[in-house]
Write a structure and sequence with these properties.
Layout (H helix, E strand, L loop, with lengths): L6 E4 L5 H12 L6 H9 L2 E2 L2 E2 L2 E5 L2 E9 L22 E9 L8 H16 L3 E7 L6 H8 L3 E6 L4 H4 L16 E7 H7 L6
Parallel strand pairs: 6-7
Antiparallel strand pairs: 1-4, 2-3, 4-5, 5-6, 7-9, 8-9
Organism: Colwellia ponticola
InterPro entries: Acyl_CoA_acyltransferase (IPR016181), GNAT_dom (IPR000182)
GO molecular function: acyltransferase activity, transferring groups other than amino-acyl groups
């Protein structure tokens, strides 16, 4: 199973149903739906350059990454731009990275991030912000992002609490999520060589 060739492609509408199913399986029911995936993907396209990608084996989506283009996303109370040391208009936002558990450890997450960074750079971004799930198994989310050059900016308790009250069912907390998010940044000029060392 793991020897099959992985193909990486831009995330388009034909993959939406599989992406939604995978996201809700990994992150919890209600995490993603049709309306959200359309919004997420649209926010990542500028000048016909798409910053969101899927990893596919035999027409089956085994991983995906959604990324918002710079100036296409809202800076909110969970962001600390004063600590980014870069113009916020030059920052894209890494919205979601998901890999089927059967295919983790093969470098799929690393490759999806690398593709997103390359596309975001073509759009003019110089860095990317993300909120990493601190309660992920074995702290894998933060570990993987750090290996790819991610730097911790700030921790945010209860990042997804409001969403859990609006239909998101956290796989750890149920409908009363108190998971903590790590706000992290990757500066792209330093990220190229670092992504080669990640195995997520």
């Amino acid at each position: 199973m793991k020897n099959n060739k992985v193909t990486y492609l831009p995330l388009t509408a034909e993959y939406f149903p599989q992406v939604i199913t995978l996201a809700n399986h990994v992150h919890g029911e209600g995490y993603l739906d049709q309306q959200k995936i359309v919004k997420w993907t649209t926010k990542g396209i500028v000048n016909n350059i798409n910053t969101s990608f899927v990893a596919v084996i035999d027409n089956q989506v085994i991983g995906f990454r959604c990324t918002y283009s710079a100036k296409q996303w809202q800076i909110d109370q969970w962001c600390t731009p004063a600590l980014w040391a870069i113009d916020s208009d030059k920052c894209c936002y890494f919205k979601c990275n998901t890999v089927d558990e059967k295919y983790r450890g093969l470098g799929i997450g690393k490759r999806l991030l690398q593709l997103a960074i390359n596309a975001a750079k073509q759009q003019g971004a110089h860095a990317g912000i993300s909120h990493l799930w601190k309660q992920s198994p074995h702290n894998s989310a933060i570990s993987y992002f750090s290996k790819c050059g991610g730097i911790l900016i700030k921790s945010h308790p209860d990042k997804w609490h409001e969403e859990s009250k609006q239909g998101y069912h956290c796989i750890l907390c149920g409908d009363d999520c108190h998971c903590e998010a790590a706000e992290m940044i990757i500066y792209f000029e330093k990220a190229v060589e670092n992504t080669l060392g990640s195995d997520f």
